[in-house]
Amino acid sequence: MNAPATSPVAGFMDYSRRLQAVLQATDWPAVARLAEELRECWRSGRQVFLCGNGGSAGNAIHLANDFLYGISRQKGSALRVTALPANSSVLTCLANDEGYEQIFSLQLAVLANRGDVLIALSGSGNSPNIVKVLEQAREMGVKTYAILGYTGGRAKELADVPLHFPVDDMQISEDLQLIAGHMVMQWLYKNKALVG
User: Nearest Cα to 80, choosing from 38, 37, 138?
Assistant: First the structure.
């Protein structure tokens, strides 16, 4: 016999409590470092790259929009930002010709310069293409941040600055990517006068 279904509201309240518990327990200095790094990228014109798989790919594209437009809302003034999962033609070409684990690292190898910044988004931190892009960034002198859930995986070891939320829930992990990104975006917008 099947167990009776729980009320949707009870499930929503449980989800809300678990998300709030992670937020309450978080120490925010790593997110502050990312905010300050992106402000310096904005000042100097250094590029920012974001990547992730699945929901994290969607979050990378969403945050690229926020950093390209939302932090300034003035023509010609914002971050030079690229979401590596955004071009399906490039992704399918590289996945087909070189393997899915190379889809981000091969783009970074062409597009990035020493001193640029990579933000990798991953629930587990163990996706082969996330590991490869972090390794590629290290070879090139690209500064790396990784917003991670679960144990943080290999990405926690490889990133210059891991932003680790130790939660064993993929959806909450992905929520936290956007929450951290939106915190940074709003801080940049409120402090845009410090860029000029």
Answer: 38
